[in-house]
Amino acid sequence: MADVQDSPSYVDTVNVLNRVEVIETPDKTRVTIGENEVFIVEESGDTVKVVLGSRGISIVEGENGTVVKVMDMDDFPKKSTHKKQNRFRPHYAGFELGMSQYLTPNFSLVMPAGQEFMDLNTGKSWNWNINPIDIGVGLGTSYVGLGTGLGFEFTYYNFNGQNGIMKDPDTGVIVEYVPDYAGNISKSKMHMAYITVPLLLEFQIPTSGRGRIYISGGLIGSAKLWSSTKIKYKISGEKSKEKTKGDYNLTPFRWGFTARAGYKNFGLYANYYMTSLFKENMGPELYPFSVGLDFTW
Asked: 17 FRET partner, CA 20 to 30 A, in 84, 183, 225, 233?
């Protein structure tokens, strides 16, 4: 049986204007907003925690599925009511949580022959996004305007089969990876992080209450920060795992379409990228998308 060695440890840190800090280590990913850590998102193993002060939500991925526990979500920061009422304020800055998948060129979720190793467990493939900054410009009114901002996108693809992925040592193309020394593979996933910038056209509809219904859509661009894979398996009855950082032929820059709709500080979002997940001819041709809930402030 081949010897198994842990991948070299690493720490990646991204700091934006001293307001947002993103730290990636072999064991967890941590996003902190504000010098006093007023908002924290931490991913460790099978658990994601979103903390605002002493309250928040936790997402736990177990053998029986994914469990989301919500605790006092009304305490998420809200836009100040002291701002001028005639100022256009876009709905982008906030936190987003949803499912992630990808489509073939024929807009199918079913992988073609020879690429079945890319099949995903949809219930355990998800993404969460932190958008700390947004900027709005009203088009002569507070109900219609252009919006942009800065965000961080974290995507987790959980493979459905007993496999991971790797670069072919001869061609460099992405192929199936199954460790010959591993027994039953209990989990195999790929993690990617991007920095994102949208350009949105947003319409807001006043209601009888103090809130507004909002609908927005436009373009989104992203640049890759890092990527890694993780496999959990058993060797001689003992649990083991390996996490490997690499570029995996992922396209470093991509663009796509984004849409959002909701009421006040709660809504839905959807992103679809027109750029393939992998570089041309260096992996399966797949187009990522994500759909989920957003909580803006």
From this structure: 84
